[in-house]
Amino acid sequence: MDIDEDDFVFYGTPIEREEELNSRKKKAVAEASGHLRTLPSWKQEVRDEEGRRRFHGAFTGGFSAGYYNTAGSKEGWTPQSFTSSRKNRAEFKQQSMLNFLDEDEKEELEGRSLGTASQFDTFGFTAAEIARKQAEKEQQQRPSAVPGPAPDEIVLPATESIGVKLLLKMGWRHGHSIKDSHANSLYKARREARKAFLAFSSDDAKSQPEDSEPGDEDHKSILDHQPVDDGFPSSQSTPVYIINPKEDTHGLGYDPYKHAPEFREKKRTRVSGKRGSGNKQALSIKDSLFGLKSGRAAPGFGIGALEDYDAEDEDVYASAYDIEDTYIQEDEEPLRSNTENNPKLVWKEQGVLPGFKVASNSDYQLERFDPPVIPKDFLPHHKFPSPLEFDKKPATPSPPPPEVPPPKDDNLKVLIEGVATLVARCGKLFEDLSREKNQSNPLFSFLIGGNGHDYYSRKLWEEQQKHNGQKKIALDGKLSSSVDKMTVESRGKILGEMPLERSSRDLSSSIASVNVNLPFNLSDTFTKPESFSEFPEVAKPFQDDPGKQERFEQFLKEKYQGGIRSTASAGASNMSEAARARERLDFEAAVEAIEKGKLNKENKLYSQQIVGFPASGGMQFTSGGLQQGKDTQDEDLATKKIYPRREEFQWRPSSILCKRFDLIDPFMGKPPPPPRMRSKMDSLIVTSDLKAMKMEEAFSADRNQPLALQFSPQEVSKDVVDRETVQVENVERPVDLYKAIFSDDSDDEIEASNFNTKEDPEKKIEVAHSTLNRLMAGDFLESLGKELGLEVPPNPPYSTNIARSSHQKESAIANAGNDNIQSVEEKSFSIPIAHGVFQEERMANDEKTAKKGEFRKDEQPRPSEDKSDKVYSGKIAQEDKKKAKLPRSLHRKRSSTSSEDESSRKRSRRHRYSSSDSYSDSSNDRRDRHRSRSKGRKKRQILFTLAHLGGAPTSWSIGCLLSVQVYGSLDSRVTINGYSELLDMKKPRTKRFNTLIPDARMKGLLIWSCVLASEGIKLDTCHWWGGWDLIHLVTASLTGQESNELQVSFTSKIS
Amino acid sequence: MSNVSELPSKEENVLKGHEGGVLAARFNGDGNYCLSCGKDRTIRLWNPHRGIHIKTYKSHGREVRDVHVTQDNSKLVSCGGDRQVFYWDVATGRVIRKFRGHGSEVNAVKFNEYASVVVSAGYDQSLRAWDCRSHSTEPIQIIDTFSDSVMSVCLTKTEIIAGSVDGTVRTFDIRIGREISDNLGHPVNCISMSNDGNCILASCLDSTLRLLDRTTGELLQEYKGHICKSYKLDCCLTNTDAHVAGGSEDGYIYFWDLVDASVLSRFRAHSSVVTSVSYHPTDNCMISASVDGTIKVWKT
């Protein structure tokens, strides 16, 4: 190569084209990247990608035409990306085609559009300009729903300006934009031209007509009428968005037909119907125009894109087309109605059918009749057609029939009396009626004159006398008041109005009167009870003042008689108005008190007793109230002390209130008040549990034989009662707790629960909660007391009593259930409510019973325990080991343990507290029981451990758990430690305890207890010994099931 | 008469700010501040000695009828016509909790000594105790043995004492679980306890203040002269328990001698009903609130 080069001889200058180019390129690149940016724009040189300066021509821009030699704008032809952030709001940019047109193109375009329209444009501008301006002007004139100027693409003039008219006449239609149509057509023309130019080589003849078509079409569309549009209907038309002028009185944006579009339709038809009847010239023109248009011209979007498509493809958009159509129509309507605003309004007001005129004067007149004139002496009371006796001859009563002894037949006597009463009340007519009706009935022969007639007539007379007397009073009252000057009060009285504030009392009293009178006035169907004086003597609150009492009775009589009230009777005539009013108030209050007293007697409301009020008080309290307590509190009456008067009741503060007040619940350990149903359930558990256990044992003993063990109900119940009365709570409750918490799982499930311990936390929590709530801490106390070397005294007697009574009840219930029990499953299901939550879990399947057997087998006497810590840990370990054992000796064990269990239970109960020597024995027994009764799980034991540690330490002293921490780890060790405080009466002390359970497979268990803990179960209601209920969970932390350590911490407060 | 000169009767400050009647004004535990509440639905914290308005607590939907502050001044409790009891944080002015449950207006509210329980007295004839420690908004106890609206409540360390329109002052002793009802025969408007805790002063609607011995229920004295017939007017004993102070519906403030019940002093304090009086726990200073919208600070 070297030689070759050397040998060559070069003439002239070589054309350094490549190098030059390269260097230039480099320069361009350098400039582009480097200093070029720093130059001001006018000093920059525009170069192409090869670095050459580009010449655009002297006249149209020189070296830098367009936007840096690209497009006419900064954006150029690059597709726009839209970014908008909270801080930088992207402004809305609207691009129109004009943005991309060069000046000359625009000019060209302008010229062309002008050329076509100017022929018809009388105003010197393009029709589009005019239209837009018109729209603006109109918008200013009329109120619009859209404030401010609307974009002119949207608003098209809906006017009748000359230009529009002309345009319309020229065939321009609404919905077609003049400007845009031109632009579009031009654009299309240009496009076609471009296309043609690109393909100019191919077919001149074909492209030429296409090129010329848009121009032609413009003319066509204006000169010709609608049919022409079919060629390119869409590309030229824009949808008409017309802002509906708001002409109704609805709120902005409120559409009354929003949920009922059919009414809008209806309204529109109505409006159009009215319009149809209208006769305005412009209107009709417009109408015809619109009518023509609305059906046909359906300008659409995007059809332009379909230009090149086949006809069938357009069907895709057919539906859209329709929608567009209706849309436009809808928008048109208000516009039209706007133009005919006034007439429509008028019609609307008149409510005249289209085509009808409102008559100037109407023949029809509403005829009004005056109300009938009520005669002055009209009595607003119903009178029976047959006048009463006293009405006929009030002044001269007939001589009384002779006194006749009643007939011997009691029935007849009663009948006669009843009829007489009725007749006296309702008049002769009733007699006639009943006579007629009972003509054939021998019983009623006394009416016709047969047997007992004399007695009847006498009775009738008596009744009438009674009745008349009463009526007379009323009549007198009425007369006297009508004679008097009419006051509001008297008028009200006549009309039977009651003063407003007493209405409620009257209501209640009238109800009471009905109640009272019902028994002995059953026949009183037509009238109110006539005399209140027959009332029991309870209604004599003014015994000390006979006059007053009399007036009171009178008052009552009137009150219950209702309606008319005599002024004379309102009080003694010598009383002042004020005194009378006060007395009246007294009476009212007394009546009320009487009723209340009755109610109270019925309801036996102890605490609601009404205490006396001073009769002299300006208050509405009267001494009448005193009478009420007569039967219950005679001594109160006797020693009517001056105020203040002190009474004492029992009141039960809620335990949490005590806690918050830092006081000891005085009712601690006492059963909750009766309304709480839970207390019953507590005892329910015991019996049912026992029996269920037995049944389970029987069941597991021999599954195939139906009920190997038969219980006689009496025996069971007696047994239960026997035992439970001795000591109920100590035996069963803790077991229930554990069962509630843990009974659902077999051991296999324990393993499983390691992974899904949260499977049903809610249920468990519920169960645990309910059980904990009724937990009695005696057992814990006892054991802990022993642990601490303290002796636990027997339970207070009342608890035993309560237990006994409730157990008797429960056993009775259980007996009933016992009789018809067929299988063990049923039995366990028949266990009532208390176990309902985990009922299903108790259903014994084979596995479970087998497991149970295992545990029972484990119940062999343990090494005597001297330190509970050791024992418990050891126990757990033992259990774990024994888990592997086969249920071989199951049957034998079970039978033995069950019987053994029963006897040992009794024994242990008797000896439990008396001798500490029997401790190990009894505790063993107890544990046995726990096992046998529950489907004993080691979980239970663990919790038991916890409970022991946490239990209240001593009996009569207040002790509590200060803190407990439980650490479980994956290596199956559990550490429990904490502090408990013994608040002994003599010397309080704090004890620290620390327990290690070496092999416990605790993980799942601890999570459970954690769930228990984190639920914040407060043992509020377990106040057997104190202490236990003071345990209050403050913190519970759960460091996850997967983690190695699990911490449960209790902290409690001490008083 | 040296006694009389000790009584606050000089207007030291006027605390203005409430728009509408002031229904209650209360000193805080040490007497350095006072709280007021009124018909304008606000609670206001004042420094009465300097006459400064410190803070306004707004959240009530209706008039605020009573307010009480804890001993450590950290929490407020208020109640009113919106049937709720509001538990406030004093510093932030935020409502920590709202206790709902009263069936109608709540007339009075008090903290217990440890500020762990709020006891409210309502028109619904009940007393309700609310737990401030837990997050529960349910009442921990409802006492509904009253047969009319409960107007006022006082708490001691072991008792809840409440006065009702049914004419009774009922003491609920938590220690022994007893309810002691002292029937005064007249609607009780307001009760306040003597500083030694042995007596209850009950304002009755028969324009009488009655002093009861708490242990026996005996009526020790009656104080008359003022008008109290239809409004809930507060009454109190002075810090030394030597005098009884009370407002009147005619705008006067009355001072009685505790023992012989003679009116030692009366002066026109407000233009309208004096709804509330509160005596400084240690000094001879008193605040009074009135329907006229002002709170006045009285000193000797």
TrEMBL record, chain A:
Domain of life per record: Eukaryota
Protein's recorded name: Uncharacterized protein
UniProtKB/TrEMBL annotation, chain B:
One Pfam family named in its UniProt record: WD40
Record localization: Cytoplasm
Cross-referenced InterPro entries: WD40/YVTN_repeat-like_dom_sf (IPR015943), WD40_PAC1 (IPR020472), WD40_repeat_dom_sf (IPR036322), WD40_rpt (IPR001680), WD_repeat_MORG1 (IPR051980)
Gene3D superfamilies membership: YVTN repeat-like/Quinoprotein amine dehydrogenase
WD repeats: 15-56, 57-98, 99-131, 267-300
GO cellular component, one term: catalytic step 2 spliceosome
Keyword terms of this UniProt record: Cytoplasm, Repeat, WD repeat
Domain of life assignment: Eukaryota
GO biological process: mRNA splicing, via spliceosome
SUPFAM superfamilies: WD40 repeat-like
Family: Belongs to the WD repeat MORG1 family.
Protein name: WD repeat domain-containing protein 83
Organism: Populus alba
Phylogenetic classification of the source organism: Eukaryota, Viridiplantae, Streptophyta, Embryophyta, Tracheophyta
